[in-house]
């Protein structure tokens, strides 16, 4: 049986790993309701998440199925389950199963009985939490060089430069 690795010891300081980062409410299985805390995956875990999503997509088939070949909803579930197996630090009891050794094992892929949408809800919460830590420049950005030659592409909008062959241009 698959067992996700122990959480990485390195945690970028800016991410404020304390939680909870999301609270599940309204699940049919009350053991799924409650606070969830995420952790940021390492670069290697990002690779493992992709590999695990591929494994889920293939479903044990001898010939692997490309993740991109799945219908959108199935692909989202494969990506969500694979990601949550690595990034959930703490979750309510219903998000776990018992491993062969009797210890709790994170298993978002086993959630069912009408609560499948909670997997996507928590995955969306993780994506929003992760996105909150991406660097963003303060204030308005200067336009790219290509935008400067497009009408309205300048910082203040407006007409922008006019080509020589357009009405009002400096043509021959």
From TrEMBL:
Organism classification: Bacteria, Thermotogati, Deinococcota, Deinococci, Thermales
Compositional bias of kind Gly residues: 151-160
Location of region: Disordered: 1-28, 136-172
Domain of life, per lineage: Bacteria
Biased composition (Acidic residues): 162-172
Protein known as: Uncharacterized protein
């Amino acid at each position: 049986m698959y067992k996700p690795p122990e959480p990485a010891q390195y945690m970028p300081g800016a991410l404020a790993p304390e939680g909870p980062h999301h609270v599940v409410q309204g699940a049919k299985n009350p053991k799924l309701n409650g606070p969830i805390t995420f952790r940021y995956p390492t670069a290697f875990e990002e690779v493992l998440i992709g590999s695990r999503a591929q494994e889920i997509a293939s479903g044990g088939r001898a010939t692997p199925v490309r993740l991109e070949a799945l219908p959108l909803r199935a692909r989202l579930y494969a990506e969500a389950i694979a990601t949550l197996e690595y990034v959930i630090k703490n979750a309510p009891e219903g998000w776990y199963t018992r491993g062969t050794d009797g210890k709790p094992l994170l298993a978002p892929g086993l959630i069912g009985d009408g609560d499948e949408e909670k997997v996507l809800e928590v995955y969306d919460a993780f994506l929003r939490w992760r996105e909150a830590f991406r660097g963003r420049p303060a204030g308005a950005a200067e336009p790219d060089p290509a935008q400067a030659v497009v009408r309205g592409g300048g910082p203040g909008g407006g007409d922008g430069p006019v080509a020589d062959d357009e009405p009002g241009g400096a043509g021959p």
